[in-house]
Design brief:
The chain is α/β, with parallel strands linked by helices and 259 residues long. It has 10 helices and 10 strands. Helix 1 runs parallel beside helix 2, helix 5 packs parallel to helix 6 and helix 5 packs parallel to helix 10. The N and C termini lie far apart (43 Å).
Length: 259
C-alpha cells in the first residue's frame, strides 16, 4: 500500500468522504475550490474542520495542479501513506482465516482505474486481501484511489515479487485457485465453489499469463451472449465473486443444524 514515510493525495467527493469515515486520522490537510461551492463540498469541509485538519480555499488551477489534472470535483486532500501490507502479513491472514479466506489475485492489471474498480468490487464482495505483482502492474495512484472510492483505505493490498510463487504457496495452504479466462472451455456457472478461495483475473486484453494459467486448479469463462468477446476485469471479478459468495452462503445455510 505504499511506504509509510511518504504522503499521498486523494481527490473527488466520494473518495474523500470515504476517507473521512474510514481513516480520518490519515488526513493531513485539505484544499477546496474557492468558488461555486456546492452542498456536498460544504458538508465535506465542515466534517474536515471538525477534525481539526487545516483547510485552504484555492482556485481551480491550483486544484488541477494538486490533483495532477485529475477529476477532483473541487476537493483534494493530502494524507499519510498506509503502512505496507507485507507478504508475511498476507500469509498470516490466510492461515488465520482458514476456510473462510477469500482472495483476489490480479495478474498484470495495467490501468489504474481498473485497479481501483477491482478494489471497490473486492471490498463489496467481502474479499479479505488483493494480491498484485510488483512489476508490470498498475500502482495505487490517486486515479486508482478515486476509482476505489474508499476500498484502498481498508482492503489489504499486497504487492509480491513473483505472483506464481504466491499462487504455489496458496495451493500448499489449501486454497482453491480459480482462474478467469475468456477462452476457457468451462463455464464458471458449472463449477461448484470450494473454500478457501482465490480468484485470479488477468490483465486487460492479454488475460492470464501462461504460468499463472497453468497453476490454477480450474479455468473458467463467463458466458456472454452479445458480440463483445470479454468483460472489463472489474466486472468479471464482481460476477464471479458475488455469484460464488451467494452459492457458498446457500451451502452454509443448508449445513446449519447438521451433526
Amino acid at each position: 500500500m505504499g511506504n509509510s514515510s511518504k504522503r499521498n493525495i486523494v481527490y473527488g467527493v466520494h473518495a474523500v468522504d470515504a476517507l473521512i469515515v474510514r481513516r480520518p486520522g490519515a488526513i493531513l490537510r485539505a484544499s477546496f475550490l474557492d468558488r461555486n461551492f456546492g452542498g456536498r463540498l460544504v458538508r465535506l469541509e465542515a466534517a474536515i474542520r471538525i477534525l481539526g485538519i487545516p483547510v485552504q480555499r484555492v482556485d481551480r488551477n491550483e486544484l488541477n495542479r494538486l490533483s495532477l489534472n485529475g477529476v477532483h470535483q473541487g476537493v483534494v486532500v493530502e494524507i499519510s501513506a498506509l503502512k505496507e501490507f507485507t507478504i508475511g502479513d498476507f500469509e498470516n491472514l490466510v492461515l488465520r482465516l482458514g476456510r473462510a479466506f477469500k482472495g483476489l489475485l490480479l495478474d498484470g492489471i495495467q490501468d489504474p482505474r481498473n485497479l481501483g474498480a477491482c478494489l471497490r468490487t473486492a471490498d463489496a464482495a467481502g474479499v479479505h486481501a488483493v494480491v498484485v505483482p510488483r512489476r508490470r502492474s498498475a500502482k495505487l495512484t490517486p486515479v486508482a484511489v478515486k476509482a476505489a472510492t474508499g476500498a484502498a483505505e481498508t482492503l489489504p493490498i499486497v504487492r509480491v515479487a513473483n505472483l506464481a510463487s504466491t499462487v504455489r504457496w496458496l495451493k500448499e495452504a489449501g486454497v482453491w485457485i480459480l482462474g478467469a479466462e475468456a477462452n476457457a472451455s468451462k463455464s464458471f456457472y458449472s463449477v461448484r465453489p470450494s473454500t478457501p478461495l482465490a480468484v485470479v483475473i488477468g490483465g486487460e486484453g492479454r488475460g492470464l499469463r501462461r504460468l499463472t494459467r497453468e497453476l490454477c486448479d480450474e479455468l473458467v469463462c463467463i458466458p456472454t451472449r452479445g458480440t463483445v468477446e470479454s468483460l472489463n476485469v472489474s466486472v468479471a471479478a464482481g460476477i464471479i465473486l458475488f455469484e460464488f459468495g451467494r452459492r457458498l452462503e446457500n451451502i452454509d445455510d443448508r449445513n446449519v443444524g447438521d451433526p
